[in-house]
Description:
alpha/beta, eight-stranded parallel β-barrel, globular, single chain, two-stranded parallel sheet
Amino acid sequence: MSALFGVIEGFYGRQWSWSQRHELLELLPVLQCNAYCYAPKGDAMLRRLWREEWPAAYFQQLASLAGVARKLGVSFGVGLSLLDYCRDDDARLQQKIEHLNRLQLGHLGIFFDDMRGDDEGLLDRQLRVVELIRLNSNAEKLIFCPTYYTTDPVLESVFGARPDHYWPRLAKELPPSLQCFWTGPAVCSKHLGHREAADALRLLGRKPAIWDNYPVNDGRITSRFLHLRPHQQRMLTPASYHSYFLNPMNQYELSLPVIAAARLAVAGSREALQRAYAFAEHRWGEAFADFYWENTSCVQDLGLDNMPTDRHQEMLRTLANFHNAAAREWLDWLRGGYTFDPACLTS
């Protein structure tokens, strides 16, 4: 399979529905994407309750997604967050991997983000987990997310000081076949280009798997905004990364134009905006597409807290005349329906 390029559902807060996930899988090949990773922070069976199995009906939903993805040629993956793993958990982890093997995953994420990292034994435990999973998983690709997945100092301020030699040991001891997630110079990087990819290569000892935290808006600050423009300040070529995943907004419909334009936008193409508009027009009609772009600056640059009251009221009245899922999401956001999840510790 070629380099993975697609979407990771990796945000906090309100999750997408099963029908939305199924539709996204159908859309991805049309949008020149070939990967989807199921990793919502709200799925406890991937995080706090990772030792347990999903209820049968829930697991059947995952199996259905995996089956649809295989038929479409889309790599379906799951992100497993082993937040409190200890040596006594080896047998439980093997059972979890055996359960996941039934999905015949295209990729499996081994995630150690959002956890305390100020422990000299941290990487030893993580490498042990990687080896156990590597020996037991039938996933086509494994992607490791380190505890420190960016040079952004916010991680150390929240999760503790990075252990000495964490990245050099990671580069040396992580199996070469494993990909490694990297968000760039910040958790939500404004710029991602050749220099940032080269920095990741130097630190990780391999080309990065880019986890692009855009247009995601699940943070304390970002939840007050809608990120509707295609990616800005991106200049990456497929040769500079092993995989690329964008992390979308809680608002499924309103994320779609950004996903539609991602291939062009990530490469720095000026045609990305036209591609996003064309998608919006095709999906919701010309009138709503025009409304969408006429109001993008207001919701993306000003946000809920700085938006003039009269503009807020006018937007509410106008949106009430549109009867589509995107308008309903927009209205819900304007009315405060997408509240910040305090489990998300970054802005």
